[in-house]
Amino acid sequence: MNCCRLQAIAAVLLLFAASGGATAADFNVRGVQTQLGSRALDLSARLKLNLSRKAEEALDKGIPLNVVINVDLLRHRRILWDQSIASWSLRRSLRFHALSREYLVSGAGVAADGYGNFSSLQDALAYLGNINALRLSLGGRKPIPAAGDYRLRLRVYLDIGALPSPLQPLAYASPAWHLNSGWTTWSVEP
Fold it and tell me: Residue 87, Cα to own-chain centre: how many angstroms?
């Protein structure tokens, strides 16, 4: 019996060693910097975006992938739950252009010309996950007082509902498509 266990463990270790260069598919929020004004929130963030093999295959076959970044500005309260001040949903799209063999990134907070193009998927994902000094308007609200304990909740996920209809049931059923950082909370600088 011990021999069978050792063989099974060796097989698992061999499998991990063979896939050593592969990165795990996941989305993570690595860092957030904020500056809160009376009428806007300036946001910079670093997101680590690793696609699953299934998502990469779909992308290479011409299926665009949409990433959603949810941002919530909250006023922290000690006794009651946090008060919601504002919420934003930022969408970014990643596509592969077969003729030029380039990856295209477009959406909220992307360069002034509306898109970025890259020769490698890693470069495109790094750009997609980099938010630099994006100004989020607080709209027609009254100005936010500088004094207060403010927090920012942020998450990033792959929008399965934006995939083509025939692919959606497979994506919902497969864990390889459920790429989501989960909510992270950060302090907001006044």
Answer: 16
Distance CA 20, CA 107 (A): 33
Where does 19-102 have alpha helices with state H?
A: 53-60
At 19-47, the pLDDT tens digits run 333 446 789 999 999 888 878 888 999 99
- Torsion on CA atoms 59, 166, 129, 94, rounded to nearest 10: 50
* Number of CB atoms found within 10 A of residue 186's CB: 17
- CA dist 18 and 41 (Å) reads 45
Q: Which residue has the tokens 């299926």?
A: 63
pLDDT digits (tens, 9 = 90+) for 157-167: 999 999 999 99
- Please tell me the pTM assigned to this model: 0.80
- From residue 38, alpha-carbon distances to 43, 45, 125, 137, 172 in Å are 14, 21, 33, 10, 41
Residue 43 carries which side chain, given as an amino acid letter? L
pLDDT at 13 over 80: no
Contact 124, 118 (CB under 8 A): yes
